[in-house]
Amino acid sequence: MRAAVIHGSGDVRIDNVPDPKIRDATDVIVRVLCSAICGGDLPRYLSMPTEQAGGRMGHEFIGTVEDVGTDVVRLKPGDLVISPSTWCDNTCEFCAEGLHTSCSRGGVWGYGDADGAQGEAFRVPFADGTLIKLPVPVDSALLPSLLTLADVFSTGHHCALVAGVTRDTSVTVIGDGAVGLCAVLEAKRLGAQKIILMGRHRDRTDLGRTFGADWVIPERGVAGVTRVRDIVVSGTDTVLECVGTKRALATAIGVARAGGTVSRVGMPQYSEGPIGEDLWFRNIALVGGVAPARAYIEELMPDILDGTVDPGRVFDSTITLDEVPAGYSEMASRQVLKAFVRL
Amino acid sequence: MRAAVIHGSGDVRIDNVPDPKIRDATDVIVRVLCSAICGGDLPRYLSMPTEQAGGRMGHEFIGTVEDVGTDVVRLKPGDLVISPSTWCDNTCEFCAEGLHTSCSRGGVWGYGDADGAQGEAFRVPFADGTLIKLPVPVDSALLPSLLTLADVFSTGHHCALVAGVTRDTSVTVIGDGAVGLCAVLEAKRLGAQKIILMGRHRDRTDLGRTFGADWVIPERGVAGVTRVRDIVVSGTDTVLECVGTKRALATAIGVARAGGTVSRVGMPQYSEGPIGEDLWFRNIALVGGVAPARAYIEELMPDILDGTVDPGRVFDSTITLDEVPAGYSEMASRQVLKAFVRL
Question: Taking CA atoms, what residue in A is nearest to B263?
């Protein structure tokens, strides 16, 4: 079969790879219907560590079950399913607490010998724990919005949820990528009355306004902090940091109110961050992390099914598997917000 | 009058300084009865920034009101009072939320032109907001325990409280200084069933056991992390970091359970800390900061008055004002845990 493979920095190719087969009795093989390119993979794409050469790409997919292992009980061939961006047994102590990303038997798609979502088929370990059935036909127009449950919409939700966003909290969202926009959507859904979006791409921030942003601030760094504090003098109660750079984190801390919370979901592109005396003296909490999408998919799905939210609007490009290498390039150059891959 | 003044690194002297006088109508002048040397001041003592030369030292005191400004309504001459380690108006938006350390009109004793607690008398701004009356006689044997409310006991409480310690959480306390020991005491008081104390000074960790520690681990760094995980394999739900060094924070993150919380109250002796991919992937929250003692003193006092807790046991040395310079030296060399200064 064909799948996206990374060969070096900026070098993703569609290669012929072995067809996936049932390996363990809890496995399922999924025929991929649609996938996506994630902004969170751009750092890996742009500066691929040597040891990852040959690794598969992509961690968001919807597909149909093709083959099931002998221990699989919840799934059968033909089921339409979605996977979170990690696999999990859904039974360990961490899964039981809703932290499926720390599953003691889990892992992340596209690393080690795991399959990647940008491929024709896929072996899913612990399929009963990992996969969730979708109650729509395979040609549903809702597939793009449902696909965001695999990562970006669930991640925006995680960011707002662990930040403690409520009706009473003011919110700054940093970053106008797909996750930032989904964080706006979720902050709004959680009732936030004041949502400030920091982002520089007009088409994206326009969508952010549609999703619920009350103000858009294009300035970055100190100028951006000043602009936020023109609106909310003491800073906002919660800050949703959806970028992952040290600069974005510094801005997040700068706009946070004393006693407030900075929630970060973008994978840190730094090993050390600015958490010295300022954060400490102002008692600002730093929370968040990789989103356990598995914990949220069933909860968030109804609002997509009934049209309350349409996070699929973050996709501004639809491509084929063969166009995935070009898709990475277009996303890295910010020509495309997020690419939907239809197989 | 005489007061402790810092002249350079390792150089604290008892100088003659001008008597404090009412400056603003909300001021009170307090005659100091007892003070303390704080481990949190040791970094300042050991490596004093040049711009702080001539600054007063000490931020913990109990004393009697000597003179009151015309706008002071809650206090009168003769009242026995305690101050938190910062002053505050107790009316601003932050004070109203219990974050008195971020009071919009507040400040920290011993910085700028503020008086320090190691002196014979003291000008207290916003005295109605700052000071709390003590319902004991001036010669009460409870003064040492009550004095810990000014900082170390309140700080230990803050650390355990914002970490979310409950009956159901396992706890690692890092540091066997006065704050670490008070954090043990507060974790126990909040009901924690498993308390691990990481500290290397036997006399201090013995007191930690008395305060509630179930295990004591003298190893540091990776060896210490391994020892904690021998006891609680996944790491502890909460970690109370009561040191303030980057090494202690790294240990705290190392012993924290995925989805858990690291609460830090020691002033960070670093500008950047290790909050990269590991903290993020494991969804560990970093909370805490300077303790708003003003918010806790009235709540914590009853347990001291009725003998339920005796945090004053952290004082293992009683000295005079003249002995304060030697007291700093003894604390810096770890000969003394915490010095009580009787004026």
Answer: A285
Q: Which two tokens stand for residue B19?
A: 């008597």
Please check whether residue B131 is in contact with residue B149, taking contact to mean a CB–CB distance below 8 angstroms. Answer: no
Do domains B2-151+293-342 and B155-288 share one topology? The answer is no
Half-sphere exposure for B162 (CA within 13 Å, toward CB)? 32
Cα–Cα distance list, B277 to A59, A189, B191 (Å): 18, 29, 32
Q: What's the pLDDT at A293?
A: 98
Domain ranges within chain A, ordered by starting residue: 2-151+293-342, 156-288
Closest by Cβ to A97, choosing from B259, B277, B289: B259
Q: Which residues of A touch B252 (CB under 8 A)?
A: none
**B263: contact with A, CB 8 A cutoff:** no
Q: How far is CA B52 from CA A14, A18, B43, B48, B119, in A?
A: 63, 68, 13, 7, 17
Distance CA B173, CA B213 (A): 9
Query: Strands B28-36, B121-124: parallel, antiparallel or unpaired by DSSP?
Result: antiparallel
CB contact under 8 A, A289 and B279: yes
Q: Residue B2: how many CB atoms within 10 A of its CB? A: 17
What token pair was written down for B156? 């230990």
Q: What are phi and psi of B81, to 5 degrees?
A: -135, 155
B292 near A CB under 8 A: yes
Q: Are A275 and B273 within 8 A, CB to CB? A: yes
Q: What are phi and psi of B328, to 5 degrees?
A: -60, -45
B25-47 burial string, b = 16+ CB within 10 Å, else e?
A: ebbbbbbbbbbbbbbbbbbbbee
For residue A202, the model assigns a pLDDT of 96
Question: If one looks up domain A156-288 in CATH, what number appears?
Answer: 3.40.50.720
Q: Nearest C-alpha of chain B: how many angstroms from A51?
A: 17
Q: Give the Cα separation of A265 and A244 in Å (integer).
A: 7
Question: Considering only CB atoms, which chain A residues are within 8 Å of B288?
Answer: 280, 283
Indicate the pLDDT class of residue B283, thresholds 50, 70 and 90: very high
Task: Give this complex's ipTM.
Answer: 0.96
Mutate to test the interface with B, among A233, A283, A294 (most CBs of B within 10 A): A283
Top CATH class of B155-288 equals alpha beta
Would the CB atoms of B280 and A273 count as touching at under 8 Å?
A: no
A263-292 pLDDT, tens digit per residue, is: 999 999 999 999 999 999 999 999 999 999
- CA end-to-end span of chain B, whole Å? 12
Beta-sheet strands, E only, within A43-139: 61-68, 80-83, 86-87, 107-108, 121-124, 132-133
**Each residue's pLDDT tens digit, A67-90:** 999 999 999 999 999 999 999 999
Strands (DSSP E) along A1-102, which ranges?
Answer: 2-8, 11-16, 28-36, 61-68, 80-83, 86-87
What pLDDT shows up at residue B48? 76
Which of the following CATH numbers is that of domain A2-151+293-342: 3.40.50.2300, 3.40.50.300, 3.90.180.10, 3.10.129.10?
A: 3.90.180.10
User: How far apart, in whole angstroms, are the C-alpha atoms of residue B199 and residue B216?
Assistant: 7
